[in-house]
Design goal:
By secondary structure, this protein is mainly α. Among the domains are: 180 residues, no CATH class; 120 residues, no CATH class. It contains 19 helices and no strands. Keywords: Cell membrane, Membrane, Receptor, Transmembrane, Transmembrane helix, Transport. One of its GO terms (cellular component) is plasma membrane. InterPro entries: STRA6-like.
Length: 601
C-alpha cells in the first residue's frame, strides 16, 4: 500500500492537469508574456472551498474518510522514505502530508469540478483503482499478528466503505451528466451566491417573533435542536467523519498493543508461577509475587472495561463540538462576544487565516490523544476502585473498608458542615436586614461589628488548616477536569488570563472569526443584493442598446458599441486621454479614480 501510494501520484497528476486545462479562468489578465497561448484555459483547481461550501457536504466528508488509513500512517510516523537525522523529522512528515494530499486530490477535484461528465469518469476510474488495490491487499495479506485472520479487514473496512460510496456517487454523477449532455434533462444552474439556509436566516431576523414560543421536547432542550436556518460547512462535516474513522482505527491499534502487552505479561506471570511452584509457595518473595500477579490481573481487566466509556466520551465530544460551533457562530452573528475571553475579542487576522488550515488536523489529533489520556485516567480510577472497594470485599475485609469509608465521609461532612455554618452565621448576624421585601439577598453592609471581628479572629487559625485541604482539592479538581476536557478544542483548560497559551483554543477562535467574516448570512445577503442589482442594471442597459440598434436597422457588435461609449467618454472628459492604461499597465489606477469622479462619464 505504501508503494502504491507513491505510484498513485502519476495518475493523480494526470487527472489534476486534465481538470486544470478544462477549467476556464473567469478573469483573464492581458499581459505580454507567453501565457496568452493558453487563452482562457488552465486554471488551478480548488479541491474544496473550506469556507463557503454547503453542497455535497457528505460527499466531501466521505472523501476525507477515504484518507483515514493514510492519516493514521502519518500519525504513527511510519512514513520513512529517507534515512535522515532526527532533527529533520518534521520535514519528512511535511513531505508525507503533501504526498498523501496529492494522491487523494483527484477525489476532491472531481467532486468540485464544473465539468461533470469528464470529472465523473476520471473520479470513478481513480476510485475504482484504489478500491481494487485495497481489496487485493486485503485478500493477499488478510492475517495479522494480533487479531488473527481478519486483522487487515478490520483496519481497512472504513476505507472500503468510503471508496464504495464514492464509486456510487461518481456513477450517479456520470448518468446524470450524460442525460444532460444528450438533452434528456435540463442542466442545473450555477452555484448560488446566497444559500437557501442563509436567506431563511435573514427572513427569520426580519420576521416578527410570536408572543408565545412553541414548547420544545426534552430532546430539543437537553440534547440537540435541529435548525433549518443553519448548515455546517463541508469542512466541519469532513473533519467529523475523518475524526470518527481515525478514532476507530486508533482504538483498534491500541487494542492490538494491549494484546501484545497482555501476552508478554502472561509469559512473565508464567515465570512467576513456576518460581512459586519451585519454592512450594513458602519463599520470602511469595507475598510480593502474589500482589504483583493480582495487580496485573486487575490492570488488564480494568483496561478492557474502560475502553467503552473512554470511546463514548470522545464520540460525545465530536457531537458536542458541532453543537458548540453552531452556538458560537450564532452568537457572533448577533454581535455577542461575551462568551470569549477579552483577549480574543480582536484576534490577529493572520493567525485567524492560519487557524482554518490548522483546525481540522488539530481537532483530529486532540481527539486521538484525548482518548488515550482519558482512557489512562479512567483506568487509574478503576484500579483505585478495585483496590478500595472490590478487592477488600473479596479478601473478607469488607467491614474494615466500610468502617474507613464511613469515617472518611463523616470527616468530610463535618468540614463541609462547618463551612456552611460560617455562611449561615454571616447571613444571620453579620449582615443588615433587606432594604425591600422583594430583594433576593441582604445588602453587603456589616452589622454587629465587634462580634464580627472576634468571629474572624478565632476562625483565622482553623481556616489555615482548612485552606490546606481546599488547596489539595483545587489541584485534584484541576487535574480531573484538565484530563477530562483535553480532547475539547472548543474549551480552554487554562486559567483565566493564560488562554493564549492554549494553541488549540486559539485555532478554534480563529476559525470561528474567519467563518463569521466570510459566511455571515446578513453580509452574504447584502452582497447578493448588490450583485443582483448590478446585473439587473447591466441587463437594462443591454436592452436599451439593443432597441437602439434595432431602430437604426443595422447590427452593431458589442465590441463596437463599447468602443463608441469609450470615445464618447473621452470626448466629454479630455483629461482621461493622458491617463489611459498602456501596455505596461501604468496609469490604470489613476484612470479609474478620475473616471469615478467625472460626472459626465
Amino acid at each position: 500500500m505504501e508503494l502504491f501510494l507513491h505510484y498513485s501520484l502519476i495518475p493523480s497528476l494526470f487527472i489534476i492537469l486534465v481538470l486544470s486545462f478544462l477549467q476556464r479562468r473567469e478573469h483573464r489578465r492581458q499581459t505580454d508574456d507567453t501565457s496568452y497561448l493558453l487563452t482562457n484555459h488552465f486554471e488551478i483547481i480548488i479541491p474544496l472551498d473550506f469556507l463557503g461550501t454547503f453542497s455535497n457536504r457528505w460527499s466531501y466528508g466521505i472523501a476525507f474518510g477515504a484518507t483515514a488509513n493514510k492519516i493514521m500512517f502519518l500519525f504513527s510516523e511510519g512514513y520513512q522514505p529517507l534515512q535522515i537525522p532526527q532533527w529533520a523529522q518534521a520535514f519528512v512528515l511535511l513531505i508525507g502530508g503533501i504526498e498523501v494530499g496529492l494522491s487523494h486530490l483527484p477525489f476532491f477535484a472531481c467532486l468540485s469540478s464544473e465539468f461533470r461528465l469528464v470529472s465523473s469518469i476520471l473520479g470513478f476510474s481513480y476510485s475504482l483503482t484504489w478500491f481494487a488495490v485495497t481489496i487485493l491487499h486485503i485478500t493477499q495479506c488478510p492475517h495479522g499478528q494480533f487479531l488473527g485472520s481478519y486483522e487487515t479487514l478490520v483496519f481497512y473496512w472504513p476505507t472500503l466503505l468510503c471508496l464504495f460510496f464514492l464509486l456510487g456517487y461518481f456513477l450517479h454523477l456520470f448518468v446524470k451528466s450524460l442525460r444532460v449532455h444528450l438533452g434528456w434533462e435540463l442542466q442545473t444552474g450555477e452555484k448560488p451566491f446566497l444559500e437557501l439556509h442563509q436567506a431563511e436566516h435573514v427572513k427569520q431576523l426580519l420576521k416578527r417573533r410570536p408572543l408565545q414560543e412553541e414548547k420544545k421536547s426534552w430532546f430539543q432542550t437537553r440534547i440537540y435542536e435541529w435548525d433549518p436556518c443553519f448548515q455546517f460547512p463541508s469542512r466541519m462535516i469532513g473533519t467529523t467523519v475523518l475524526a470518527f474513522i481515525c478514532l476507530y482505527l486508533f482504538i483498534v491499534i491500541e487494542f492490538c498493543m494491549f494484546l501484545y502487552v497482555r501476552n508478554e505479561l502472561d509469559v512473565f506471570e508464567g515465570k512467576l508461577e513456576s518460581y512459586l511452584t519451585s519454592m512450594n509457595h513458602t519463599g520470602t518473595l511469595t507475598p510480593i509475587i502474589l500482589q504483583v500477579k493480582e495487580l496485573m490481573n486487575v490492570t488488564k481487566g480494568v483496561w478492557v472495561v474502560t475502553i467503552l466509556p473512554a470511546s463514548l466520551t470522545c464520540v460525545s465530544y465530536l457531537f458536542h463540538i458541532l453543537a458548540c460551533y453552531r452556538k458560537h457562530m450564532k452568537r457572533l452573528w448577533a454581535g455577542n462576544k461575551h462568551f470569549l475571553p477579552l483577549k480574543f475579542h480582536n484576534p490577529s487576522s493572520s493567525e485567524s487565516v492560519v487557524a482554518i488550515a490548522r483546525y481540522s488536523g488539530w481537532q483530529i489529533a486532540y481527539i486521538l490523544w484525548g482518548y488515550l489520556i482519558i482512557h489512562v485516567v479512567q483506568s487509574l480510577g478503576g484500579v483505585m476502585f478495585m483496590y478500595g472497594l472490590v478487592l477488600p470485599v473479596i479478601h473478607n475485609r469488607g467491614l474494615e473498608v466500610l468502617q474507613g469509608l464511613g469515617i472518611g465521609i463523616l470527616t468530610i461532612s463535618i468540614v463541609l458542615g462547618l463551612m456552611i455554618l460560617q455562611v449561615w452565621i454571616a447571613t444571620s448576624f453579620f449582615l443588615q436586614p433587606k432594604m425591600d421585601t422583594a430583594d433576593k439577598q441582604k445588602p453587603l453592609a456589616l452589622n454587629n461589628r465587634k462580634v464580627f471581628h472576634n468571629f474572624n479572629y478565632f476562625l483565622f487559625f482553623y481556616n489555615v488548616l482548612l485552606g490546606l485541604g481546599a488547596c489539595l482539592s483545587r489541584l485534584l479538581f484541576s487535574c480531573i477536569l484538565g484530563t477530562w476536557l483535553i480532547a475539547r478544542i472548543d474549551r480552554t483548560i487554562m486559567q483565566s488570563g493564560y488562554e493564549r497559551a492554549d494553541m488549540g483554543f486559539r485555532a478554534w477562535i480563529g476559525m470561528l472569526y474567519v467563518d463569521h467574516y466570510h459566511t455571515n448570512p446578513v453580509l452574504v445577503s447584502f452582497c447578493h443584493l448588490l450583485i443582483t442589482g448590478h446585473r439587473e442594471r447591466r441587463l437594462q442597459q443591454a436592452v436599451q442598446y439593443g432597441h437602439l440598434s434595432q431602430s437604426s436597422g443595422a447590427r452593431v457588435s458589442a465590441r463596437s458599441r463599447t468602443r463608441w461609449l469609450l470615445l464618447q467618454t473621452l470626448i466629454n472628459n479630455p483629461r482621461l486621454v493622458m491617463l489611459r492604461k498602456s501596455k505596461s499597465g501604468h496609469g490604470s489606477q489613476e484612470f479609474i479614480q478620475i473616471l469615478l469622479t467625472c460626472p459626465e462619464s
